[in-house]
Amino acid sequence: MASILASHFPSVTCFRPVPHVLRTPAVSIYNYKIPTGISTEPNCSIKIEMEKEGDEASKLRSEFMDSLLSRRRHLLVPLRVETGEPVKDPLYQGKILPGSREVMESCPKEDITDFKDKLVQENLYLITEAGNQGRLPVLIVSMKESAPRRQPAIVFLHSSYKCKEWLHPLLEAYASRGYIAVAIDSRYHGERASNKTTYLDALVSSWRNGDTMPFIFDTVWDLIKLGDYLTQREDIDPARIGITGESLGGMHAWFAAAADTRYAVVVPIIGVQGFGWALDNDKWQARVDSIKPVFDEARIDLGKAAIDKEVVEKVWDRIAPGLASQFDSPYTVPIIAPRPHLILNGADDPRCPLAGLDTPISRAVEAYKEANCPEKFKFIAEPGIGHLMTASMVKEASDWFDKFLK
């Protein structure tokens, strides 16, 4: 980015003994205008220093941040940390596909004597905004260290209807290899859910009221605030923070990396797609079916006999403004350059149709060529695979992080 925006957090508090110190101020990297109505008083978590836009990537990030802020003007609070406890009975809102656990357990792992005894698990909450959903549950897994040192960290993001505890096999595998492994519950999932329909109910509520963005964008806000926290930890190298996720988590990783350049290495898995392309080419059905109740609600409100392109477009505009237009993959995938970026998809994935990625992938290739680092971008579409994370994807992601983050 041509210019840097410093966001100061004058009141960052830690309520638990941890092996790191929170510093004030924390630093964010955004260059955006503050929307009307946002407080800039010291007791607000965001204090803006106005700077000129530097380039097209900065401009797009600015517009995206404006969009995120537009529905939380009254919710901004100082970032703070609260103690947490391990979750004994994680809440899953959907069925677990056979074999999916084994796929994560296939992740490369160091053979360490008494491994479990040497693991360190931290449970905490970040307060990212006012309200129940502003309490972000965080799970951090690492190895006991004989001497303090800054290590690379990776943020892992679960798929729809799961939770951070689901990711334990990946967290432990990466911790064994010298990473600090971090997972969160996305909005309306895990500890942020009260029953098995919380996420779907939140999507319907967003359509009705237009006051939240539960599909992707609200969790991206949390990931930006998570970046503020992680870059302050004395055991994490702030220049070596990666991000990855599966399905919904892959979308979270994609958009968080597009918005926040502190995520230095990026691996979205079965998440990147062309929302606008799907609308234009009548390929939206599989994605719609994954969260169908909100589209059914919109269909009824719009007086339609069936869900059609108009219904889908209006839902996206309502619950995730810009998702199928200015913030879609043809624009947000290329601005991740020049950071190392690996996209892993299934070649037969109906939710992420391959043809819909022609433009974003070609633009990304050009962006990395222009940055003189074409080797830092790679797209793999695994033949014969639908919407499914595979063991080979887990291995590819692992190799990518080892190559660029260690």
From TrEMBL:
Residues 154-391 form the AB hydrolase-1 domain. Coiled coil: none annotated. It comes from the Eukaryota. PANTHER family: ALPHA/BETA-HYDROLASES SUPERFAMILY PROTEIN (PTHR47381), ALPHA_BETA-HYDROLASES SUPERFAMILY PROTEIN (PTHR47381:SF3). This is AB hydrolase-1 domain-containing protein. It comes from Asparagus officinalis.
